Amino acid sequence: MLKLVKYLLILSLFTLISGCGPGIMLIGPAVTGVIYWVNGDAHKYYEENLEVVYRSTKHALNELNLSITKDEPKDNSYYILAGGENRFSIHITKAEKNLTKLSIRINILGDKDMAELIYKKVDNQLDTIIFNPQGNPTELIK
Description:
Blueprint: H1 2-18, H2 23-27, E1 36-38, E2 41-46, H3 50-63, E3 68-74, E4 77-82, E5 88-96, E6 99-106, H4 112-125
Antiparallel strand pairs: 1-2, 2-6, 3-4, 4-5, 5-6
Helix pairs in contact: 3-4
C-alpha cells in the first residue's frame, strides 16, 4: 500500500511539473514571453500597456524595412498589415490593464522565422525611447 501511495505521489508530481492536467491551470496564466502558434497565428503576451506594444511593433517593422500598408486603431486594439503583398497581419489587443496580446498571422506561404524575428525586435524595442534631433522623445512612426 505504501508503494502505491508513493507511486501516485510521484505520478501526480510529474503531471504538475510537465504541464499536463490540472498543473497547467496553476502555471499557465503566469507565463509571459512565450510565442504560441495556432493554425498560422502566433500569439505572445506582454506585460506592457497597449500603446507601448503598438509603438514598439511599429519601430520593429520600420527597423526590419517592412512597409506598413494598413494601420487602423480600433476599440482597445490596433490592426496592422505589413510586408509586401500583405505578408503579415498583426493584431495588438488589450487583454487586461497592463497585459497586451500581440498576434501575427502569416499568409498562406508563411514566414514563421520572420514572424519570430518581428517578436524579437519588438522585445528589444519595448524599453527603447526614440529621440528626435532636438533631443525630445518622438511619437509614433508615421
